[in-house]
Structures are given as structure tokens and as C-alpha cells.
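$ run holo --ligand "pyridoxal-5'-phosphate" --emit C-alpha cells
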Amino acid sequence: MKSYITHLECTFCGRDQDANQLIRTCPADGKVLFARYDLVAAKAEFSRECLKSRPPTMWRYAEVMPIRDPANVISLGEGFTPLLRADRLARETGAGELFIKDESLNPTGSFKARGLSAAVSKAAELGANRFTMPSAGNAAGALAAYAAAADLEAYVFMPADAPEANRRECQAYGARLTLVDGFITDAGKLSAEAADKHALFDVSTLREPYRAEGKKTMGYEIAEQLGWTVPDVIIYPTGGGTGIVGIWKAFAEMERLGWISSRRPRMVCVQAEGCAPIVQAFKDGKRFADPFPNPSTMAAGLRVPAAIGDYLVLEAIRESGGCAITVTDDEMIDGVRHLSSSAGVFAAPEGGATLAALKKLLAAGEVSRDERVILLNTGSALKYLDVLAERSL
Ligand SMILES: Cc1ncc(COP(=O)(O)O)c(C=O)c1O
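-- output --
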């Protein structure tokens, strides 16, 4: 198994960068870099058949992952999470065929494990051994866990109101935790300062190229688990946007590998009513999102008032013919209750948001009752017990 990575490409100006150096964003315009692969050569060697004998982790797609030497992969078994058929929930909501991609079963209890496994492995392969990041909570837990497993150093900056589980796990994993009186954007400034001061590699969302590579494996898995077809709709709770952008990238790569057709799902971005910069930009027809004033929601992962990858999220939604909608915190909680009681999935509030969104889309006729829909449950409610207790759940 070898990686077919060739270079990095700026998603904005299109300039190429060397994938063998530690680099974060495009030196020309500061925008997001994507990893590119020689998919023509990969197509000749890497078939869907190859996957049959591989272990059920996201590293089964190693040829389209950035790590050159498999010995450099830092893994805690992330990925290949179940795609659960939720027939009872479908009946009760009036949906057609409904699936839950249950990311709560990842190491550290959220899909953040995928991105950090990929980003820390690649940066370490290129020589980094000290890391920093701002995080709503789950990403910090994941960085801290992978750093612990590989004997690397991790600094994490998270808002003081991040869920207790995230604070405790970071400490248990041995990361240096700083609680910030402010939003993730404020934590980002402190993380950047710490990076300069202590020579740390900053793995902030989409400010380095490889977290998206980990997250894109959700797209590969969805297609593989559906027998190399794609669903009609994917509903994704969007904060910084790495996941939705990564999944969208995966579909383009799989088409070039000859694994799927040109058919695409409609990508639906769900945000909280109290923090919806992407939804606002989508409605206004804008290419970039304005920072959302006074962001407020119980779903820490959705409390992201400004994201460097805003234009990529908006592109994925528009190119796919999807949409962007908000749900309230109460609707998210109802979503968590309903996912738990009717599907047996104790979902994070962000996962609850996807069910709340589906109900609204069905009521508005934007998703029809004969479509195949995937809800992305991005994390476990077990990491939000304090937040849920405040809402009597
Ligand atoms: C549980 C959960 N869901 C969703 C998100 C948003 O993810 P993304 O940055 O990929 O939009 C986060 C981010 O912190 C999260 O922790």
C-alpha cells in the first residue's frame, strides 16, 4: 500500500505547493490547501476489490491518504463506523430510507478522531513533534489522544464553557490545556500566539491540509457501505466545515477512481439558530460568510462564528443542489431524545440537529418521502452529560 499523494493545491488560487514540506495554508493568499493524488495511477492499482481484505479502519483507503510510510500512521482504530438503518425513525418521521452514520463509535467519541489521526500522522512524518490547536472541545480531545499515543506534545485552547468531558480527557491524555474566556475564534488567536512563541505546529481546522483528508474517509465509507452508490441527501452539522468539505472531496476522487458514477447526494448544512454564518451566506447568495455576531448554542461544535473554509462549504452545498438550514437548541434536544429513543443512538446535540433538520426539510417538501437520507451523528452524547443535564436530559 503506497500513498499516491503528489502535491498540495490551493483551493482558491490554484497554485501548487510541495507536499513534502510542513505547510499550513497557501503562502500566496492564506486560503485552504487540499492534498492531491495521482488518481490515474491509483486507478490502475487500487480497486474496490482491494478493500475486501483490509481492516475496518479509515486507513483501508491508504492510497488516497497522505502518509507516505505506513509505519508513520498513528492510529487508535478510527473510522469504518457503522451505517445504521433506522427503520423505526424513518416510519416515525415519515422519511423514506433513513441511515445514521454513527461517528460516536470513533476513538475519543467523535468524528474528530479521523481528522486528527491523519493530520498528526502527516505532520509527524514531516518532522513536527509539538502541536497546538483551538477547539470547541472534541477536536482537542482527539489531538491530545493521538499526541499521547505517539509521545508527542499537545497544547490545546478551548472556550471555558466547553463540555466537561473534553476538559477532563485533555488533562488525562497529558495535553497542556488553556481555557479561554471567549469563543473558538479567541482561542484561535491564543493558539496562533503559542505556535509562534513555542514553535508549535498549529493544526486548526482547515488551516493545515490533512484534517480534511481524515474526514473525507466518511465519504468513502458511505459509498462503500451503500454498495458503491451514493444516497440522495446527506445532512451534516456544520461548524468549521472540514467534514462536509472532506466528504464532497471524496466523491470527486471516487468518481476519478472509477468507483462511483457522477451522481452526487444533496449536501445539507445544518447550523444552530444562534450561530449560523454559513446559512446566512447561503441565503444571501454570498461566496464568503460574514462573522456571526454573539454566537450562542449549546452544541459546542456548532459555535463557530467564522470559518476559513466558508467558501468551500458554500461551494459543496451549491454544487450539490443542497441547502443550509438552522435549528434551535430545543429542536436539537428533541432530536437527541428521538435518536436515542427510536434508534438506540445516544447522539451528541450536533447529531440531534441533523434529525431536527430532516423533520423541517420533510415538512417543507425539500426532502421527499421516497429518498435515501443519511444523518451524520458526529459524536456521542456521553461527552455532553453536563450540557444535557442543564436541559433536563
Ligand atoms: C460533535 C461535533 N459535530 C460537528 C462539529 C463540526 O464539525 P466541522 O468542523 O467538520 O464542521 C464538531 C466540531 O467541533 C463537533 O465536535
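-- notes --
The chain has a mean pLDDT of 97.
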